[in-house]
């Protein structure tokens, strides 16, 4: 039976918060940069101050408000796509014969050392394993993955 540790809800929510902030910033700056020139706009005073009172030439604030929204919107959409395509699928799976984490499959026979001294206080453990004749380390943190204590217990039971 495989035990799965998905990406932590904290990390997932952070990506969504970043995307909302970027898209919200794009909307706010876009409103000031493009819609404030109309009389019906609630921010017409901003346009008047930064363009009309400046001899009809947009100053630095108005130029920023006109150039930032497309970049912020692209960045926000990029974060959403990154979340949906890559981040949402990240997980650690402790199967019967191997551990799968981050696209790496580690056989339990290849695990040389399991350092879990910091797991109780700091929430991470380090697996030292050999692959292709090299010793490598994999650090797994409970701040990155949910259900990691169950995965750790499964690993300990398999390598003991």
Q: Can you walk through the features of this model?
A:
There is one protein chain. This protein is α+β, with helices and mostly antiparallel strands and 160 residues long. 45% of the residues lie in helices and 23% in strands. The protein has four helices and seven strands; from the N terminus they run βαααββββββα. It has helices at residues 9-35, 44-50, 60-85, 148-159, and strands at residues 3-6, 91-94, 98-101, 104-107, 111-115, 124-131, 134-141. The strands form two sheets. A four-stranded antiparallel beta sheet has the order 1-2-3-4, with helices on one face. A hairpin with a 2-residue loop joins strand 3 and strand 4 (104-107). Helix 1 packs antiparallel against helix 3 (60-85). The radius of gyration is 25 Å and the shape is rod-shaped. The two termini are 17 Å apart. The model has no long low-confidence stretch (mean pLDDT 92).
State the total count of DSSP E strands. 7
Amount of helix: 40-55%
| Helix and strand element order | EHHHEEEEEEH
Q: State the end-to-end distance.
A: 17 Å
């Amino acid at each position: 039976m495989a035990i799965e540790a998905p990406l932590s809800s904290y990390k997932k929510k952070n990506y969504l918060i970043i995307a909302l902030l970027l898209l919200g910033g794009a909307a706010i700056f876009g409103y000031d940069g493009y819609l404030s020139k109309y009389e019906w706009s609630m921010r017409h005073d901003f346009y008047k101050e930064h363009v009309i009172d400046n001899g009809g030439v947009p100053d630095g604030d108005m130029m920023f408000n006109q150039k930032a929204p497309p970049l912020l919107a692209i960045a926000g959409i990029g974060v959403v796509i990154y979340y949906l395509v890559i981040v949402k699928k990240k997980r650690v799976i402790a199967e019967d014969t191997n551990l799968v984490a981050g696209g790496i499959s580690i056989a339990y026979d290849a695990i040389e050392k399991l350092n879990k001294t910091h797991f109780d206080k700091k929430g991470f453990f380090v697996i030292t394993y050999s692959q292709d004749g090299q010793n490598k380390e994999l650090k797994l943190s409970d701040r990155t993955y949910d259900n990691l204590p169950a995965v750790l217990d499964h690993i300990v039971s398999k390598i003991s």
